[in-house]
Structures are given as structure tokens and as C-alpha cells.
């Protein structure tokens, strides 16, 4: 349970149009997702007294709140990359539990793919060359190269194979095949992954996330608001957050992500164990992220992630621990900071609204517990949220 005196639940969750969206602005996608999340909850925007957003506008989230016609009395603009939304959810849950807000709306939207197609931006992502990055940029140390170097370290220390990493992509695509809204649904094999063009050794193209457009929104509310909602509540049981490093030289161990801390905190605060989870939604900009996060959340021991992802364990159909049930950033959608999409998918699974990709136990029962864990930067930050019904 979140710290404070009031229980907190997710009462609305929705996506905007995703995938290939050439005729919308980021603001449009924010608004579309927000309207759909409120409609999902059966509430009007007047109930929203808290707002959290990042990544858009000079004064984010002030500009987005204005665009949506909101005047919140609680606001958060935390920006820590892909883990932003799990960290924001933690902050929002604490604020609601403490009585500082009653209903907090988290919103994100991006036209990353459409902007590149239209020539409004390039395909390269630069974080600049100031601060600690000044010591890495001159050597061409790109974002993807940092993830690739960490993956190679894991392979050297623990014997993880490139085929095992490829299995993460294969199983993500198998889950995406069950999701009619996923951007890529055709099956792929380990050989397909390995034979693709090299992006950053050891990552070929299919080891890397796709680039899409899209938005997402989640509405968190106090327990007394729940009775006015159209949907069944999904309770926030525990959260954790952690930052690790900015410069790679300050990262003590490339084989340990900050999820090792955020996950431990979230499970402890929820009073549950990793083994009780019915599914996991994990940030997967690259295959290695899924593997190492599974280790650090406690689903397997350090160094055993490669063996764990073999034999279809991550699949919705027949998997022991379904992971990224919508297809994840590797196959479903990845418009940038994808952490909010993890929360939407987790909520849909717990409500039994996931259609053909719905997770059920051997008796056909719906899941009761799930975890969403986002990672930001190059394993610089992590936020983990445990949810239950």
C-alpha cells in the first residue's frame, strides 16, 4: 500500500492512436489519451486536481495542462527518461494518500516517428555535451552504444549468449501477434534476429525497439473517488524509485540495473514477493533491458537471465511469467518515453480487458498481481510499481 492514510487506485487507463499517426501533433495525442482515460473511468475532467507530464513544451507540464483545460493544484514534471511514468505514479500515489490531491492524471504523447518522416527531426538522439557527458561524447559514445556495452559485459561475466538475448525479441513478437494494435505482428525467429543489420555490437536491428507515434494516459484516484468510477479499481500496492549514474564511469556494475533497488523497495512496500506476480511489464528499448531487469526484480538470480528467458517463459501463451504482454517496445509501440504504456497494459491485464493476449492461470482465472518497471537513460534511473485488484 502507498505511504499515507488513503488507498490509491488506477481508475482510468487508455492509449491514443498509436503506430503510424501522420496527421496529429503531440498535443493532439496527449488530449486524445487524456479524454479516453477519463471516459474509461467514467469521470469528467473537473475531478482532476493533480497533473503530471514530461517531454513536451517549454514549461512542461504547464503547457499541456493548459491545452487540456486543466488548472491543477498538484503538479509533477519529473523527467528521468523511460522510468518517468513509474516515478510519477509513485509521487502521485503518495500525494493522494497524504491528501494533497484526489485524482491525478498522468499523460504522455509523441510523434517521434512522424517527425522523422516529415523531416522535422533526425533519427539521432543527442543529450548534449555538457556536464558529465562531456567526457564521453568526444568518443562517439551514443545512447545505443552504452546499452550494447552493458550487454556485452553481461555476456562476458555470465556467459549470456546472443541467442538468449534474441529470444527476448522473438517472444515479444509472439505476444504482439495477439495484439491487434501492435505495430509489428509477423513472427520472427532467433535466426531472423541474428541475421539483421548490425546497429551496435552485439545488437542487430531486432534487438532494438521500434519507432512509433502514440500517447497514453492513466488516472489515479483516492479510494473515496473509486465508488464514482465506471471501472473496477486497480490498486497501487507499492512503489520504488532509484537513480544510479549519469556517466558510465560512475556505474559500478554494468550487469546490475537500478531496478535492483526500485524493485526491492516496491515489493517490500507492497508486502509481496516477485514470485507472486502473474505478469511483468518491463521497459524494453533493447533486449538486454528485459533480461537484466528480470534478474534485478528477483525473478531469477544474477547471471541466470539468459537461461530464464529461454523455453518461452515470457510468452502470454504457455509462458511461466508473461512479460510485455502487448508486444512491448520491441514490437507494439515505442514513441519515446514508454513507461506509461507499461502501466496501461498492466491495468488492462488486471481488469481482464486484454482480449486475445489476456493472461490467465491454469484454472482460467484473471491475474491478481502484476508489476510495471520502467528504466530511464542508459540504466540511469528506475521506477517500479506493484499493482493488484
From TrEMBL:
Signal peptide: none
Superkingdom: Bacteria
Thiolase C-terminal domain boundaries: 240-389
Annotated Pfam families: Thiolase_C_1
SUPFAM superfamilies (UniProt xref): Thiolase-like
Cross-referenced InterPro entries: Thiolase, Thiolase-like, Thiolase_C_2
Name the UniProt record assigns to this protein: Acetyl-CoA acetyltransferase
Source organism of this protein record: Streptomyces spinosisporus
Amino acid at each position: 500500500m502507498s505511504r499515507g492514510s488513503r488507498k490509491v487506485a488506477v481508475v482510468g487507463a487508455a492509449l491514443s492512436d498509436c503506430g503510424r499517426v501522420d496527421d496529429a501533433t503531440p498535443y493532439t495525442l496527449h488530449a486524445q489519451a487524456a479524454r479516453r482515460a477519463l471516459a474509461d473511468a467514467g469521470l469528467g475532467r473537473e475531478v482532476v486536481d493533480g497533473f503530471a507530464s514530461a517531454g513536451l513544451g517549454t514549461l512542461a507540464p504547464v503547457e499541456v495542462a493548459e491545452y487540456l483545460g486543466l488548472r491543477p493544484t498538484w503538479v509533477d514534471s519529473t523527467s528521468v527518461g523511460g522510468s518517468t511514468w513509474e516515478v510519477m505514479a509513485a509521487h502521485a500515489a503518495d500525494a493522494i494518500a497524504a491528501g494533497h490531491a484526489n485524482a491525478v492524471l498522468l499523460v504522455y504523447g509523441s510523434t517521434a516517428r512522424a517527425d522523422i518522416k516529415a523531416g522535422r527531426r533526425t533519427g539521432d538522439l543527442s543529450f548534449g555535451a555538457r556536464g558529465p557527458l562531456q567526457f564521453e561524447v568526444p568518443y562517439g559514445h551514443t545512447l545505443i552504444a552504452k546499452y550494447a556495452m552493458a550487454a556485452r559485459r553481461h555476456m562476458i561475466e555470465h556467459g549470456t549468449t546472443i541467442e538468449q538475448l534474441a529470444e527476448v525479441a522473438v517472444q515479444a513478437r509472439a505476444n504482439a501477434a495477439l495484439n491487434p494494435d501492435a505495430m509489428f505482428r509477423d513472427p520472427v525467429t532467433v535466426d531472423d534476429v541474428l541475421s539483421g543489420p548490425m546497429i551496435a555490437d552485439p545488437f542487430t536491428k531486432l534487438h532494438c525497439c521500434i519507432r512509433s507515434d502514440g500517447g497514453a494516459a492513466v488516472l489515479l484516484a483516492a479510494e473515496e473517488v473509486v465508488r464514482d468510477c465506471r471501472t473496477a479499481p486497480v490498486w497501487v500496492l507499492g512503489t520504488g524509485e532509484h537513480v544510479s549514474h549519469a556517466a558510465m564511469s560512475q556505474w559500478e556494475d554494468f550487469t546490475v540495473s537500478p531496478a535492483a533497488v526500485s524493485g526491492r523497495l516496491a515489493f517490500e512496500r507492497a508486502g509481496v514477493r516477485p514470485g507472486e506476480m502473474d505478469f511483468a511489464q518491463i521497459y524494453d528499448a533493447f533486449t538486454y533491458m528485459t533480461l537484466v531487469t528480470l534478474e534485478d526484480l528477483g525473478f531469477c538470480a544474477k547471471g541466470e537471465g539468459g537461461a530464464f528467458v529461454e523455453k518461452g517463459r515470457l510468452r502470454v501463451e504457455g509462458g511461466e511469467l508473461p512479460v510485455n504482454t502487448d508486444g512491448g517496445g520491441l514490437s507494439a509501440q515505442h514513441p519515446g518515453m514508454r513507461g506509461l504504456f507499461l502501466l496501461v497494459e498492466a491495468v488492462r491485464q488486471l481488469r481482464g480487458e486484454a482480449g486475445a493476449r489476456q493472461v490467465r492461470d491454469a484454472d482460467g482465472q484473471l491475474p491478481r498481481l502484476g508489476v510495471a518497471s520502467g528504466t530511464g537513460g542508459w540504466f540511469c534511473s528506475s521506477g517500479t510499481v506493484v499493482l493488484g485488484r
